[in-house]
Amino acid sequence: MTKKLCGTNYPTSICFIVVNEFCERFSYYGMKAVLTLYFLTYLHWDKDLSTAVYHAFSGLCYFTPILGALIADSWLGKFKTIIYLSIVYVIGHVVKSVGAIPTVGNSDVHIALSMVGLILIAFGTGGIKPCVAAFGGDQFDEENLSERQKFFSIFYMSINAGSLLSTVITPVLRGDVQCFGGDCYALAFGVPAALMVVALVVFIAGSGLYKRNPPQGNILLEVCNCIGFAIKRRWKRSKYDPDRKHWLDWAEEKYSKRLIQEIKMVLRVLVLYIPLPMFWALFDQQGSRWTLQATRMNLAFGGAFIIKPDQMQMLNALLILLFVPIFDLIIYPLVGLCRINITPLRKMATGMIFAAVAFGAATLVELNVVKTVVDPAPAGNCLLQVFNLAEGDITVKIPGNELFPQPIPYLQDPPKYETLPLEGSSKELKIQVTFKGKASECNQMFEEEKAYSLILSSTAAGIQCELAEDFIKKGEDGNPRLRFLNTQPEAVNLTVGHVTFQVPARNISANKTVDRGEYPDVSCSLQSEKCSTLDLGLLDFGASYTVVLTEESGKFVPHKMEDVKANNVHIAWQIPQYVLITAGEVMFSITGLEFSYSQAPANMKSVLQAGWLLTVAFGNVIVLIVAEGAGLEQWKEFLLFAGLLLGVCIIFSIMAHFYTYVDPEQLDKVFLEDSERDEDKDYKMKKKTEDIGLTKRGRAPNCKCATFSTSHLLCSSGVDLAAKGE
Fold it and tell me: Does the global pTM surpass 0.70?
């Protein structure tokens, strides 16, 4: 007898299942939240490769549920499948976490461990995905239908709660905890691994309470076999058969008419699924392209709270919890009052439009974000800016162009980089510098597609030229970059937050990433008393700074130059696109699941759910192809996706217009009436046969057939022949 929770009809076993699902979703979404930045900042991949691998992993996670369903239904059963694949899941998390430890091997080892870990995680999470919810439903008796429905609501809430908490917590573990001299990805992956271990332990702890149904064969496999048999038979028979109006009718020689009719119903829905992957291609970019966009935005809410770029994904889970009741209780009833027939397919088409508009909003944000980005120089060119440290105006002329027509003032922050033509991969240029009426010349070698700062300082012998290569790429985690230019004859050490800079005398330091924030008292280590603390002010998101150290009144004084402008578009401008994409998800995803369930015969619901999950997988494949193959600017790529989804929405709307909604329960009624009609026909045939006394060809006088088959047709022919002969 199933144990119940005190005073309720809920089985005690569902507590273990709900906790297991919460922990598993925490582990999955927590790991995935920081995955794109891990590829960028730890493995040092570019944005396109990082996006492609992210979506390849996401796609694999939605291909593997079919494998999990086959294993559970045909071989191990749901309980053992969850146990065994959860172990694979845990191993994948552990391998992934070990790959994020810098001291474990070289970069090739880190990449290998990361890929193996992700593949194991994909098989684990995808394999148990179709089993856990169904296993929870198995715990209820048939008479507890309302409790079962409420369980699925609780189950859905546990999924979103795990997602919401993990997307808040794991970015904090990544960015706010320092380990091995940088962001702590090992901890950010290790905590989800620990939660997956907890999920497995909790699930095993309830093993004595579970109701376990043995595997009863896989309907998905039977459907595939039936379709394959029909195609094979139709291929071999080239002659048209008027009795077989549909190609699936060729399977009647082996499979029942009911199964064939059910497959026809499912195929009609699956045809509608063909345009759906494009929605998921947009939706799943929240964790890749939209996270990358957030790294180039201002992430500060006031002076106290700073959000991580990978934490913005929490908005989706939070808004889902808000929007589901709002749509069900307010929006849909209000639309109904306007006498608008809101069918499921119309809701889904509207959800597509919302997602396309979300990417339109993302395009507008991106157009403003890129204004602070320094575009790299094209082939055959380089970028150049000039620092004047000579305590007076300097005129700079480069033969063959007019890049710096005006004199350059002392310690002026260069307004922008100028593009310098090289007419090849590299070139040595003679630069003419005029200071206080005295002209001098310096020769410098420039290479294409690089950015440089030309540092001009005065000495007793005249103007001294020094060329420094600049780092113009914005930090992938949104933090600023900093370097120091020391004009004094003494070396100096400076500590900015957790980062130490060693600046040689009359030289420039390395370019390093520091945390965003105010730095009013940077510690300064110098043998003389010229330097104690320095006020650098605000080092803002995404900027690159050069701080020139000069001496004034016997003290070191910093002069901050902004090489790359700080991010000036606030992260709050991403909120509209998250609101729009989540509204689209509520109308598209939830409605799509309900539509799939309502249009499928009882024993075919798992087949349609598998088809639905495949649309998510193929959506990620689309992003993978575009990210690696298109090579577009980001705003153009966003606009392309928005346009593609609108085009697909039109196609889907046309297909939906010609779709006829069905009630699968009517199928039972139809086949029941057919069965009664067959039984009545068989009875009349038997009676007539007995009256005639059919004995020809050795036939029994009570020839009877229960189903439409070859034997039935032979029996009927015998009756007709006997009647004619009589």
Answer: yes
What distance lies between CA 609 and its chain's CA centroid?
A: 20
| CA distances to 481, 496, 548, 550, 705 from 525, in Å | 21, 12, 16, 15, 101
pLDDT in tens, 396-430: 998 888 889 889 999 889 988 999 999 889 999 99
Q: Which residues contact 96 (CB under 8 A, 6 or more apart)?
A: 31, 113, 114, 117, 118, 121, 189, 193
As given in the structure block, the two tokens for residue 348 are 């889904």
Angle at 645 between CA 644 and CA 651, to 5 degrees: 95
Distances (CA, A) of 501 to 220, 411, 486, 487: 63, 22, 11, 15
The residues, any chain, with a CB within 8 Å of residue 382's CB and separated by 6 or more, are: 419, 420, 422, 446, 447, 448, 449, 450, 451, 452
**Which residues, 6 or more positions from 509, have their beta carbon under 8 angstroms from its beta carbon?**
483, 484, 485, 486, 501, 502, 503
Q: Which amino acid is at 110?
A: H
**pLDDT grade, residue 478 (50/70/90)?**
confident
The CB density around residue 248, as the number of other CB atoms within 10 Å, is 21
The helix (H) or strand (E) run that includes residue 522 is strand 522-525
Virtual torsion, Cα 593, 594, 599, 604, nearest 10 deg: 50
Which pair of tokens denotes residue 124?
Answer: 């684990």
Interhelix angle for 664-692 vs 257-273, to 10°?
160
CA-nearest of 64, 111, 107, 199 to 613 is 64
Let me know: does 59 contact 200? Beta carbons within 8 Å. no
Q: What is the rounded distance in angstroms from the CA atom of residue 196 to the CA atom of residue 184?
A: 19
What strands, in cross-sheet order, belong to the sheet with 512-513? 512-513, 481-486, 544-552, 555-564
> Residue 457 carries which DSSP code?
E
How many residues comprise the chain? 726
Query: What is the reported pLDDT for 669?
Result: 60
**CA 80 to chain centroid:** 29
Buried b (16+ CB within 10 A) or exposed e, 47-73: beebbbbbbbbbbbbbbbbbebbbbbb
Give residue for tokens 């790429």. Answer: 473
DSSP three-state, residue 439 = strand
Structural contact between residues 389 and 457, judged by C-beta atoms closer than 8 angstroms? yes
**DSSP percent split of the chain into helix, strand, coil, nearest 5:** 55, 15, 30
The angle formed by the CA atoms of residues 203, 204 and 206, to the nearest 5 degrees, is 70
Amino acid at 211: K
